Amino acid sequence: MSGQQRIALFIDGANLYATTKTLGFDIDYKRLLKEFQGRGSLVRAFYYTALVEDQEYSSIRPLIDWLDYNGYRVVTKPTKEFVDSAGRRKVKGNMDIELAIDALELSPFIDHMVLFSGDGDFRSLVEAMQRRGVRVSVVSTVTTQPPMVADELRRQADEFLDLSQLASRIGRDPSDRPQRPMNENGDRPRPQPRSPALESRYGIRQPQDDELDI
Question: For residues 12 and 95, is the Cβ–Cβ distance under 8 A?
C-alpha cells in the first residue's frame, strides 16, 4: 500500500470483542495502531462501545481510558434496558448510527476506511463510502462456524482481512499476562476483583460488560 493513502479505522467494539473471543486471542491495541500506521497516513482511529449506566465500577473503563489517551477517538453512549415479548430483560447498545455518521463526515478527508465489524447492517454504509471514492476494507473472520462476518458485507467490501491472519501482528502475547502465585498447597488462589489500575497496567481487554444484545 502507498504511504500517501489516508486511512481511518472504525472499530465496532462489541463486535470485535465477540470475534476475537471466538478466535481465542486478545487484541493488543497498541500493536493494532502501529500495524495500520505502517500502511499509510492514519488520520483517525475510532472505537465505539456502549456503557452500562449506574455501575459504581465498570470493568470496561480501563480500556476506554487507555484508548482515549493512546491515539484512539473513543465514542460511547449509555446502554438501554428493556423487556422483550417473553418477559426477559435485555440490554441494547447499538453504535451503528454513530459509526456511520462519523464515517460519512470523514469521507472527504480519507482514501481508505478500515471497518472492524462483521455486522451486515454496515453494507449500505460501505456502499455509500465507495460512492464517495473511499476504498473500504472489512476486518472480521470466516474461519469460525458460523462465520462472524455477514456474507453481504464481505462481498461489498473492496478487501476482506481475516482477523485470524492478523492475530500474530495485532494480538496480545499471552506471556504478557501476569501469573497468579501459588499458595502453600500448590494451588492458585481465586482471582480477586480487578481494579482499574491493574487492568490498565497489565493489558487491554474488552470485558464481559460489552457482550451486549445488539
Answer: yes
Q: Does the predicted TM-score (pTM) go above 0.85?
A: no
Q: What are the CA-CA distances from residue 103 to residues 4, 111, 143 (Å)? A: 19, 12, 27
Q: Is the dihedral of CA 61, 66, 68, 74 positive or negative?
A: negative
Number of H helices, E strands in the chain: 8, 8
- Enter the C-alpha cell of residue 213: 444484545
Cell of 212: 451486549
d(C-alpha 150, C-alpha 122), whole Å: 10
Which H or E element spans position 49? Answer: strand 41-51
Q: Is the pLDDT of residue 205 over 90?
A: no
Burial class (CB in 10 A: 0-12, 13-18, 19+), 85: exposed
Helix (H, G, I), strand (E, B) or coil at 96: helix
Q: Does domain 6-173+193-206 correspond to CATH entry 3.30.365.10?
A: no
d(CA 63, CA 136): 26
Pull the grid cell for residue 209.
Answer: 460488560
The amino acid at 111: D
Give the pairing of strands 73-78 and 135-140.
unpaired
C-alpha cell at 65: 481510558
- The whole-angstrom separation of Cα 169 and Cα 167 is 5
Q: In this predicted structure, what is the pLDDT of residue 180?
A: 43
